[in-house]
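Work through this protein:
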Amino acid sequence: MVEDNLYWTVVHSRWANDDNFNKGPRFFFNAAPAPIRPFVIALVRRKIRAALHGHGMGRHSEAEIHAIARRDVDAVADFLADTLRDIVGAEHVLTDPDTRAGYENDWLGKYRGSARCVVRPATAQQVQDVVRECAATGARIVPQGGNTGLVGGSVPRGDQVHGEIVLSTRRLAMLGAVDVSSNTVLAGAGVTIEQLQQHARTAGLDFAVDWGARASATVGGAVSTNAGGSRVVRFGTVRAQVRGLQVVLADGRLVDETKGLPKETAGPRLTDLVIGSEG
């Protein structure tokens, strides 16, 4: 009952009379207490979808209903962009079409899309916060590393109903010290393959996986696609090179498998499930 009353107050009342027809929901999102904002946004989205499919909107035409829905979706996207700015900083949330362009096309220019914004977190905590906010508002996330893929997997599709967010991992560029006793190094998802190779070589080691796009392709993308490269017959794919991963799940939870015993026999290994998952 509370949910229905809240919805009728925020959305449906303005569909019932012309005085409220042109009001958008932005004023309510900004005034609502932070704990219930995700609920309000999700509820508005659900009711919009129901209205667009049901066509039971009295004297307003279908075109007018779509116009209302468009304004609501835009308001939710604007609210989300403001929230993401608070998380990663305003300079790392790209909304201008010109600054987004490089993230909306693939390497060969074959695939093109449109994103609501591009967000560039720099830490695992920021990634968690971004994913939580997107999950709460129903925004779809397109993870993107070096954007060197050839099949359009890192390009947004232009879903204007839910609003797609490109989450760029390029600022996740941390490189730890090379541990020569275990032949391991901790690398962020935004580190390029070339940077990782050069870093390992300073300790007399190398990162075995290699291919032509090494200067742009990132560790995160290589893990996501289980990349092979030109030395795969000798050294195997990326799966053979990964000891553990730190993973942010779709609901924002962080799973850290970068520590622990080399031998792990307790059930399925999340690292193996994530490698090659294309996301």
In short: The chain has eleven helices and six strands. The beta strands are 93-94, 117-119, 140-144, 164-168, 246-248, 254-256. The mean pLDDT is 78.
